[in-house]
Amino acid sequence: MNLAFLVARRYFLTKKKTSFINLIAIISMLGVCIGTMALVVVLSVFNGLEDFNRQLFKTFDADLRIVPASGKNFRVTDSLWTELKKIQGIKHITQVYEENALVQYGDQRTVVTIKAMDDNLQSHPEMDTARIAGSLILQQQQQNFAVLGIGVARMLGLRPEDPLTPLEIWYPRRNANLAAPGLDAFNQANIQPGGIFSIEQTFDDQYVFVPLRFAEDLFETDGKRTALELQLQSGVAVESVQKQVKTALGSTFKVQNPDEQHASLFRAIQIEKLFVFITLTLIVAIASFNIYFSLSMLAIEKKSDVATLLALGAWPGLIRRIFLTEGALVGFSGALVGLLAGIGICSLQQEYGLVKMELVGSLVDAYPVRMQMFDLVGVTVAIIIITLAASWMPAQKAAKQEL
Questions:
Q1: Could you give the CA distance from residue 92 to residue 210 in angstroms, rounded to a whole number?
Q2: pTM of whole model > 0.85?
Q3: Percent of the chain with pLDDT over 70
Q4: How far apart, in Å, are the Cα atoms of 172 and each of 92, 206, 219, 225, 252?
Q5: CA angle (108 as vertex; 105, 109 as ends), nearest 5
């Protein structure tokens, strides 16, 4: 067995003559342990929030979304439609026109995002789980219906049992003079509320679904669309179909997968996760200063041992390795316990949901967590670097000791 490790292990396991050194070593281990545990738990919570958002958006978003690379809308040509129909794996294509508009119900009004679609929401099976009242039918024969988020419905004081009060939608006419607006400056159309959905507050307070045929005159779309949403067949790889669609459509369009449809949110989560990692790593680094102090005092206490080793022919490099190994044992012991504790806490949270979110209307009761091997490796590497850095100076001083 390595001589440096044998000596370091003996120093680590035996009680020091000065009890204060033992106390500092224990504090060092506890600091590294708690910091490591916090890193594992917090990073796993961020991973869980990412997964939660993906699951949440899956109810609302398409598997792939085609939008113009520049500009707001585009015309769906026969050639574009033909190219999409050639691609294997696409189950359904929905034409979409989105625009902000003023809605009024009785005396209440608010600004919402109107999402006009050329088919019923019933063709989107994930949305059925979000329906809480009425139906998801947008058009039936010649009748048009609106499906509102529950937040919008509450703001408007919507009464689903009242079939006589329509939902009024107002939108500025094209080329209208809004400097001195009157009723003539706006397009106005009435539609019957048909259903209410609840996904998450961001969507619930913002969206109203209507039929595309209803929105074309209201928004004066001139046959243009803001997006095409693709629903893929079960088991088809999204990345594969996305690549085919990009190749077929060229640089004129952007083809977004679910993550890219909310790129700013996921980027913000990753940036916040990085800053939390840096912050907690700095806290662990500060806690590791105790390793520096405990090793410095240990080097003074073991001065006679070092002199004996040097007299027996030990070279300075061996002395350095002994104290580096001693520091590593202190730091790694704390890190190992912290790593196991963090994994244990995350496993318990996944299994039993011990820590509750306690948010009204939340889709999950407990904080979601997901452990990631990359995070565990990153935490381990960071602790190794911090521990060795804290041990280097005392080890160097001990190695420079003279007989």
A1: 18
A2: no
A3: 94
A4: 32, 19, 8, 18, 29
A5: 85
